[in-house]
Amino acid sequence: MKPTLLVLAAGMASRYGSMKQIQGFGPGGETIMDYSIYDAIRAGFGKVVFIIRKDFADNFKKIIEPKIKGRIEIDYVYQELDSFTGGYKAPENRTKPWGTAHAVLCSKTVIREPFAVINADDFYGSDAFIKAADFLNNEIHDGLFSIIGYDLSKTLSENGSVSRGVCEVNNEGYLVSIVERTKIYREGNKIVYDDTDGKHEVSSDSKVSMNLWCFPVSAFDIIQKTFLEFLKERGTDPKAEFFIPIIGDQFIKEGGKIKLVPTNAQWFGVTYKEDAPEVEKNLRALVSKGEYPERLWS
């Protein structure tokens, strides 16, 4: 059974200011997602599931399907505030979805095989998909998840702060903890993050999660249970988000292991509109090197 790729594309894109998930950046107008799906197909994934918002579903499908239909199985899931909440009613002042881990939970009805999770607007590199597919095909089991780990210094934006799951790993290569730092940025020769306690330095070679996770189907059970606990504790906070690293920490606490599979790939993405020219430049460079055809789907 081939693994599935789950693409998180339901974000509001508030910082970027447009529907960046379907904006073209490649020489032939390819989206960042196109490159991820192309790499996933080459690595042996058999299905792609998109988590999107209903209000741009038609536009999204018109752009995506003509390119990849027939190349890989396709399915869609909508992330709604009342999905999998056990009847919990969101506060009236809650306007944004519950977060990335809730988005994953929303795909429970359509995924029946080991799967990898990615963000729609991040470029991960072919090495990451090869390693993810290898793990999903040969290593994964109910007691073992994985993340593809990137060097922090290779995942920053020059145009503002970013959110990163900073990993602590033991000598055997398994996660001890993963903490979502929502404001990481360069300051001179240092990399720092801000939180409620102030400013803190973090090592440039720290391994971080770019939300490329590998899960068995049984992960949905722990995500559902942890989400209901999250709602009880933080559901009244209109800005609280149920991030995937929360699942990772809970899984470790319950005796599970998460293998960090390192990649030396250079991440890039469009967190801010000002990032777009650099993304276009990077994609053209990869095409020039022969890593991708000039027209992905021709």
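That was protein one. Protein two is written in the same sequence-then-structure order:
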Amino acid sequence: MKPTLVVLAAGMGSRYGKLKQMDGFGPNGETIIDYSIYDAIQAGFGKVVFIVREYFLQEFKDMMNPKFGDKIELQYVTQELANIPEGIDVHPEREKPWGTAHAVWVAKDIVNEPFAVINADDFYGSDSYKVLNDYFHENKSEDYAVVAYRLRNTLSDHGTVNRGVCYSNESCHLTKVVECTKIQREGDGVVRYPDENDEKQMLTDDTLVSMNMWAFLPSYFNYIDDQFVDFLNNVGNELKSEFYIPSAIDKLINDGTLNVNVLDTDSSWFGVTYQADKPIVMEKLNQLIVDGAYPNKIY
């Protein structure tokens, strides 16, 4: 059975200023998602599920279907405030859905096979998709996995970023993952972020971080369903509460429910958070084409 790629593309791009998942970065206007889909097809994935918002669903379909509709199965799911378990009320002033773990949860009715999760605005590199596909075919357990990157390769020169900091043991099993927000390299060259008490904490350049590239099994939906109900009952009425994948996985690890393997990749990661990141991303993509990693036209 070929694995599925779930692409989290529902973000509103508040720091970028527009829908960056639909912005062009390649020489022919290719989006970052285009390169992700190309890499997934080459690696052996069989289906792509896009998590989007209703207000740009049709525009997104019109963009993606002509490019890849004849190359791989494409499906679309919308992430909205109404996509929650029955019997739970939503605060009337809440504007946005509940983050990445919620985004994956909304695909529960159409994903029945092993699946990978990625962000729409992150470039993960072709090797990472091969690593994931190999893992799905070689893994005979119920373990999940995360592809981890070095923090120094994931920072932005133009503002703060959020990262899931990964900790692993000698067996390369994830022991915990902590969602850290507002990470940045400060003037003295040290990378810091504010903790829950707003006190600055340091991170090293070699810190392993999750860029939301995960390998899951369908059992994910049962686990997360229970957690999501608890989350909504406890903090769902907070206007800015977020249900993150790293936090959900960290609970499953701490409860002894499952193991999560940390996978290495030779791929380089880069992403776009701010408008000022765009020229850098365009330059890196162009260099990959020059180096022969991609053809000038990928569809």
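The first strand starts at residue 4 and ends at 8. Keep this in mind for the problem set.
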